[in-house]
Each structure stands twice: as C-alpha cells, then as structure tokens.
Amino acid sequence: MAIGTGKHWPEGTKVLVVEDSAATAHLFSARLKMEGIDVLTARNGLEALEVLKLEPISIVVTDLMMPGMDGYRLVREIRQMAQPLASMPIIVVSSNQRESEQVRCFEAGADEYMTKPISLPLLVERIYRLLRRSNRVT
Amino acid sequence: MTLPTLSLEHAVLLHVLLWATLAMAALLLLLILLSAGVQTRADRINNRRILLFQEWEEGLPNYLYQGQTREEAFGRIEAKDLGFFQTFLGRYRNTLGGEDAKRLRTLYRDLGLEKDLPRRLTHRNPVVRAQAAMEIQSYGYAEHLGLVEKLLDDPKPFVAFAAARTLGALHGIDYAPHVFDWVQRQEDYQQDRLLELLEGFGPDLLRWLEMNLEPTGSNPTPWRLYALLAAGMRDEESLPTLRGLLKVPEVELQAAVLRAMGALGDLSVWEEVRPFFHASAPALRLHAARAAGLLGHIPAVDELVILLADPVYEVRREAGTSLMALGNVGWEALEWIADDPSADRFARDMALDRLDWGRP
Which residues on neighbouring strands pair with residue A92, listed in sequence order? Predict the structure, then answer.
C-alpha cells in the first residue's frame, strides 16, 4: 500500500537504483516503495545494463562513483542503446559538487544531476516530474 | 638383553627436554584456545552488528518518513550498542540532506553520541579520529573545531584531510590560515584537488590572504593558490590583485591568473591577457586561449586562429575549443581553415577535429 506523497504513479512504474553502497540503495528503495512503486537495484553500471535488458524500467537513478562501470559511462551506454531505452530518463546522484563534473554528466546525456547530501522526498519529486515530462506519468 | 644405563647428566637432560616439550605443547594449546576464543568473540560481535544493522535498516525509513519515534523505529538501543549505532548512522551522513539530515541529527543528539567526540578526536585509532572529524562536519558541532584543527598535523594523511574538510565545510575562518598552510605542504599535484576544501571558507579567505601573504617575489606558490581560489569562487573583488599578479614573471603563477581572469569573465582584462598569446611558455599560450573563449571576446578570433598552428597540440586544441565558444564567428573561422588547402597542416587538422567534435 502506498503511504508516500499520494502521487498518482501509473501501474508498472519501475525505478532502477544504481548504487554501490548497499545501505544507501536500501534506503532509496525503501523510500520509493512507500510511494507504491517497484524498485530494482544494481551495484554498478554493468549490473544496471543487464537489468535494463531484462526489465521494463521507467527511470534510472544512478550514483556516479562505482567500481566496474561508473555512472558517467552508464549514462553514455544507455544513450547509445536502441529506443525506447535510449530516451530513458536518468537522474545522476553524486557527492561531487564540481561544476565541471555536472557539465560532463549532462553532456553524456543525464537529465538531472542531484548532489549529495540529498533529501529523499526531493528525489521522489524529481523522479515524478521527470517521468511526467517524458510522458511516462499521466 | 640389558637396557643401557643413563648417566645422571643424561637423565637430567632428558627430563628437562621432556618437560620443556610438554610446556611448549601446553603453551601452544593455550594460544590456539586463546585465538579461537578471540575469533569466536569477534564473530559474535560481528554477527550481532550485522543483525542490528539489518533491523535498523528496516527501521530508518519508518523513523525518517513515517513519523515513528526512535523506540518505535529502532527498539531500545542498549548502551553497549551505541557505538554500532553511531557507525550505522555514519553510513547515511554524507547521503541524506534537508529534512532527512535534520532528523538524523536529532537522533544523534538524542542518544548523546556527541558527548564522546572530544575523546574520539584524540583516539589512538586514526579511523576513529577521522570519523569523529567527519561527524563534527555532518552534525555541525562547531564548538569542537579547535580540536579538529590539531588533526591537521596528524601523521595520517586521511585524518588531516578529514580535518581540513570539516574546518572548511563549517566555515571556521579562524582556522583557514592553518588549512591553507596544510594545503601548501601537500604535493603539487594534490594541491589543485584540495582547493575544493579551501573554497568552503568563501571569499573571506581571499581577503585574509590579500592582507597577510608575503609579497610575491619571495614565494609565488601561495599566490598561485590564491588565483586558483579566486577562479573557483568567481570572486570579482580579487580582480585588482590578479592584475598585479599577472605582471610577476612566474609561469605557473601567470597561468593560474589567466585561468582566474577567464573564469571571472570580465572583458576589461582583455588587453592584459592578449600579450600571453605570444608567450614563450606553452602553458601561458594555452591559458590565454582558454581565457579568450571564456571571455567570449569576438576580436580574439585572429589571435586564436594563429594559435591553431601552434607547435604544441594542447595549445592548438584549446584555441580550437575557444573558437567554438565564440559562436558563429569562431565556427566560420574554423570552417574557413578546414576548407583551405593552403592553410597550415596543424591548423587544418585541428579545425577539422574541432568541427567534427562540436557538430551535433
């Protein structure tokens, strides 16, 4: 049962959280699940690409610094995939506050860049807005 | 058959050897039992920690987002588990912001975890010292900054780094000179990365440096950091000082000043930047080219076109990138060179490269 913000999330909304810290991934998932939406997690970009091939994902929320494949490369890889995956909304969440790093992510194809520390209700709001902008929420 | 008889000396020696062997075996057994005990205890503690963390992980979202009290969300936290809980909270310290961070801070305070901070800042384990410094940053205990400052001289670099970051993040301007000295003591390649810590002090640090640094002639290094900080903070008030620094004949200092002038984006510096297009040091030509692009000064096209044929690749690439930053005029110049078979080969290759890179 959804006990979050009371937003109208369409049936089948599924968020992929890519985060190497298990604690952070768990907290993100728990907060998003309160909205009544499905959440999948991956520990790095490589795992995320595997999930994207198998599951219908609505939006990706990814960390930047991860072992294996980092968030920056993940964004680039997604943008080079076939449609509709290539136009998948992507939010990068990173503790790197440098302007150059943010520009780099946007150039790679990220839709949003949020710097840690972040407020999770704000993340939920951004996810909802981004899905709505990309017509994935009615 | 008769058994050989032992002499008294041999019998004593045999006894000694026998008892020594027994003593060694007993000692070995004791050591094995002791290490097994230590390992069992460590495993038990670890298992308990894992179990507690799993329970608390489930409780945290309820505490943060569903208005549950501490007791409801986490159950009763025993005094012996407070250290675990501190570590548990530490995992979210740098992740959660806004109202979430405030709730986390309340939790930290309610349990009285901050009372232990002074002791932990001087703990013999460097990891504990670094964690205490980071907690002071995250939870905003500015009253302990004096103790944090002492950690700048810690023999472990990661402890000193945590201390510098905390002092910067909490804007402890009184401690800024010490942090600035600490950054200067680091390797050159590290200094640029550490500027981010100094930026935490804000423009007040730049004003302090203007008043207190030795004249540039004796040591240009701190002034180089000053210029890079002015660039990072986009501090317009630094411009008069930067103008003076640009006249000091030190390549690294002048390169940093050119970088700052570009970052500030004040076109009034153009005539001072211009001579550096013809400097003998490639670093100066490179930064002059970059500044031209950042300043967006259209008449810089001519100078940038000349640098497209520079013998140094990085300078050519910067000139090409800056031409693109100038908009239509720069793009037209690149296209003109790319289409001109009589143009310098270096310039033409770079023009083609930049056009290829910049096209959507």
Answer: A62, A113
